[in-house]
Amino acid sequence: MRATWAVVGVLLASASAQRGADGGPADGAPAPRPAATYSNEVVRILQRRCQQCHRPGQIGPFSLLTYDDAAAWGETIREVVESRRMPPWHADRSVGKFSNDRTLSDDEIFTLLSWIDAGMPRGADSDLPPPARFAEGWQIGQPDLVLSMPEDFRVPASGTIPYKYINIPWTADEDQWIQGVELQAGNRSVVHHILMLVHPPGAERAGRPRDRARGTDEQAFGFFAALAPGNPAAVFPPGFGKRIPKGSEIVFQMHYTANGTPQTDRSRVGLVFAREPVHTEIHTRGVFNTFFSIPPGAADHEVRAAYRFPKDSVVLSLMPHMHLRGKSFEYVAEFPDGSTRPLLRVPRFDFGWQLSYELAEPLAMPTGSKILCTAHYDNSPANKANPDPTKAVGWGDQTWDEMMIGYINYYVKRPGGGEQAAGE
Question: Rg of the Cα trace of the chain?
């Protein structure tokens, strides 16, 4: 059997504990479970863990909705499950707990690998569960408002396409509180990512002049929502939300990549308004460093950045961002008493999956606490995704450039305790 040794060891130890001295079942030991078939176990794992992406029209490269689908891809399933590459989840399991953890349990891995080793038996149709139901169209449900690009953007067949900043009309006559937000690409084949930026009327961006000159304050201060591989729509709990002030400027930052034929795109965003009063405003900030240069051939170049909280705050989620030379990323909390706590370690960053990590327990950050971000980059020939290991690499918009951003979602606490009142 080719199941991972760690999983096999755990299960053999469990089985040994359940056997008596004569090799038979020990008194009180549960009866051995039936051999896994597609119908009685495997399909349920696929429904929970895989089908959200692996179905027609979604990001997965093949469907896993039927037995024939799963059997046709059995060896691929074995490889990505054994190596823990799928479902995509890149956090070190020894650091932090996350409410949206996608990892397969050891038991789920053993079940899948045992089923493949047994020849992928189908089982009885009477054991099949009902098909999983997925939201079609908008993942956030029917939006209250849909905003689209004013006109189609023509994407050339080839060449470098600088980021496009497209103004989206916003005419609300009062502040709007957003409970759910989802960006949709009009043409998935050429849209790499979308950032939705919101700039309140007359507000000076808070970045340093040198950051504003580079446009990097967009990543730090204007971020409202994003569409990127693996980054789902955002839905906030009742009483929490993001605010779009009256008179704001809404901008889509569009990253297009040519695919060999002329294309057009008209992307859009769906918004769900808060159904009840919002008492806590969620903020997004990028912790970033733009002043770095990764030497040619460097296999483990380190870049750091930090953010100090000026008020008592609570961190909700983390999302690291780098490009093709990104190797690893780590978040550490540093508290005013000097103590530290690791929050997230991503030992093998994957540019193809821009994942957000939702803390299982929100983290209080007293005034003066810091978020410390450390990124490592591989600019060596050993990095198969490296566009050119002979060149030094610094900050830039394009995929063959680099970025160093540690996004955080957080809210500010009220003086004396509790959440900050919405709009304060």
Answer: 24
Per-residue tokens: 316: 């909700």
Token representation of residue 349: 């960053």
Question: Which residue is listed with tokens 């733009």?
Answer: 290
Distances (CA, A) of 339 to 307, 336, 417: 16, 7, 22
3-state secondary structure of 115: helix
Rounded to the nearest 10 degrees, what angle do helices 5-17 and 106-117 cross at?
100
Tokens standing for residue 409: 């979602």
d(CA 396, CA 239): 38
Give the pLDDT confidence of 208-228 residue by residue, as tens digits. 434 433 444 444 457 899 988
DSSP code, position 51: T
* Neighbour-count burial of 170, counting CB atoms closer than 10 A to its CB (0-12 exposed, 13-18 middle, 19+ buried): middle
pTM: 0.79
Query: What single-letter DSSP state applies at residue 419?
Result: B
- For residue 70 the two structure tokens come to 């799963």
What's the CA gap between 196 and 178, in Å, rounded?
A: 13
- Strand 405-412 with 357-365, pairing: unpaired
Kindly report, residue by residue over 336-394, the tens digit of the pLDDT. Answer: 999 999 999 999 999 888 889 999 999 999 999 999 999 999 999 999 999 999 999 99
In Å, how far are 141, 253, 254, 411 from 164, measured between CA atoms? 28, 6, 5, 30
166: alpha, beta or left, given left = phi > 0 and alpha = psi -120 to 50? Answer: beta
